[in-house]
Amino acid sequence: MAKYAKWIGGGLGWAFGGPIGAIIGFALGSAIDNLKYEDSRFKRPMTTPGDFAASLLVLSAAVMKADGKVMRSELDYVKQFYKSQFGEYRARNYILMLKNILAQSFSTHDVCTQIKANMDYSSRVHLLYYLFGIAQADKEVAYSEVKIIGEIAEQLSIKSADFEMIKGMYYKDPSAAYVVLGLEPTATVQEIKKAYRELAMKYHPDKVLHLGEEFQKAANEKFRKINEAYETIQKERGFV
Length: 240
Fold this sequence. Notes:
Elements: H1 5-8, H2 18-35, H3 52-65, H4 72-86, H5 88-102, H6 109-118, H7 121-136, H8 143-155, H9 160-170, H10 175-180, H11 189-202, H12 213-237
């Protein structure tokens, strides 16, 4: 987490306004309402005008919601990040805001516009590492998460080469898996299952038991790649 200190460390100094102010303002008000009877020590998080940390919650929420389910591991990742940057008490307040932002519908465009206007290019690139870290928190980066991070990268004017480099560190492109199964990415689930069954039968190691050790090794390797490809597509498409 320490590598993020340079670009998040004192905030960037832009004023909340328009759609961003509405998102953050609603979340902040809800957080205060939720806590005012629970903790008399509660104070507003230090969301000074231009608090980048609060704006970053909007992008965090977008990635967390991308695959249709918010995982505890993702929430813990964000919480640990904010805790390392601002301390446990302020992190607690930010996470309360995040939970309320997650309940809203919003666009990332406006917040990205503000970030782009106030953050240098190198720092914006580092922001993608953080977002991919959220996506990977549950040990599995879904295509829908890659898609939303790609949209954010485009809105932040991140060069395609830089985005692809970072994506490659976190995400195994499932298009290669379709090639292994002899399919196009547009194949239906039924077509995918059919192709897998046919290839699994064709290349099952038992088919070449009589041909000797070298043929068995090759068959085992091919069978392994077929199964890995199928599992990759299963995860990407969300079917069993």
